[in-house]
Write a structure and sequence with these properties.
By secondary structure, the protein is α/β, with parallel strands linked by helices. It has helices at about 1-15, 30-40, 60-70, 85-95, 140-155, 160-185, 205-210, 225-240, 255-265, 285-300; strands spanning about 20-25, 45, 75, 105, 195, 210-215, 245, 265-270. It contains 10 helices and 8 strands. The protein binds zinc ion. Zinc ion binds near residues 56, 128, 129, 135 and 201.
Length: about 300
């Protein structure tokens, strides 16, 4: 193992171009999209998880170790989102630039007020949101914080392009603010609407856009639906007049369809990752556009 590693390392050193761009690795596609906004042409970007993959359970390929070994910067969501797969990869990549606390290791949850932080830490019952809800990035207000964290780190690691990163951050923030006003306008008629989600990954989105998303097909994050739990959800959906169920690409759409049949609700495909659904490949703002429009349409059609 040691010899193989040394060999890979030497090969990498010999083949690295002299004036390479900053080599940035993002764990998930949403972080990758924001890193691209900030890094622009000054970085090369690799995203580890596929946009259609569950961010909690990413298939950690051996090639990820090589990618992390040659990286100048790694960007992770943090709040334990990648705890099941990233720490072992980082360990095996033996890259000091990415060590915990190093400027090349960006944890984007820094400065994000996490929701649903449990009073006592308890993973024994299978809850995979043990440190609070880690799906914060889908809320535009949090995307701004993540973008600031990324810009600060890139500027520190690659000082010669610091001005570019700061300018790109400013551009992204202004664009996001302008869009936010439009999104709020589009969704204004649906304020307070009750939406059912498969997995509890939407509380920050609900907060930013004024929805009520607190019924889930999973009895607990990461625990598959049971008939008894679904019966309870169906009962609550009827009493709350919840007419829309949202499902991410990596979850079981059939379960959602069954519940929809019993309640007359509509199933709406959603994603938190640019590229997770057709029409969301263009980046973070296009993804939010897609979600806002899809929900506005479904809520208007299913009152
Ligand atoms: Zn989750």
């Amino acid at each position: 193992m040691k010899t193989t590693f040394a060999f890979i390392l030497i090969t990498l050193l010999l083949t690295a171009p002299a004036h390479a761009k900053l080599n940035v690795v993002a764990t998930t596609a949403d972080l990758g999209a924001i890193a691209r906004e900030i890094g622009g042409d000054a970085i090369t970007l690799t995203t580890l998880a596929k946009p259609t993959e569950d961010p909690h359970f990413v298939d950690a390929k051996p090639s990820f170790i090589v990618k992390l070994n040659r990286a100048d910067v790694v960007i992770e969501g943090g709040a334990e989102l990648e705890i099941g797969w990233l720490p072992a990869l980082l360990d095996q990549s033996r890259n000091e630039k990415l060590a915990a606390g190093a400027p090349g290791h960006v944890v984007c949850s820094k400065g994000v007020p996490l929701m649903d932080v449990p009073a006592t830490l308890d993973r024994s019952r299978g809850d995979i949101h043990a440190a609070g809800n880690p799906h914060y990035l889908i809320a535009p207000s949090n995307a701004k914080i993540a973008a600031q964290n990324i810009a600060a780190a890139l500027a520190e690691v690659d000082a010669k392009n610091a001005e570019t990163y700061r300018a790109n951050l400013q551009k992204f923030t202004v664009a996001l603010d302008a869009k936010m006003a439009k999104w709020q306008q589009t969704l204004a008629p649906f304020k307070g609407a009750s939406i059912v989600a498969y997995h509890d990954s939407w509380p920050y989105f609900a907060r930013d856009f004024g929805f009520k998303i607190d019924l889930f097909l999973e009895p607990k994050p990461g625990i598959p639906p049971t008939p008894a739990h679904l019966a309870e959800v169906i009962f609550k959906m009827k009493s709350e007049n919840a007419r829309v169920i949202i499902v991410d690409p990596y979850l079981n759409r059939r379960t959602a369809e069954t519940v929809a049949r019993d309640t007359g609700a509509a199933v709406v495909d959603v994603t938190q990752f640019p590229g997770g659904l057709k029409g969301t490949e263009g980046g973070y703002i296009q993804l939010e556009d897609y979600l806002v429009n899809a929900l506005a349409k479904a809520l208007a059609a299913n009152k």
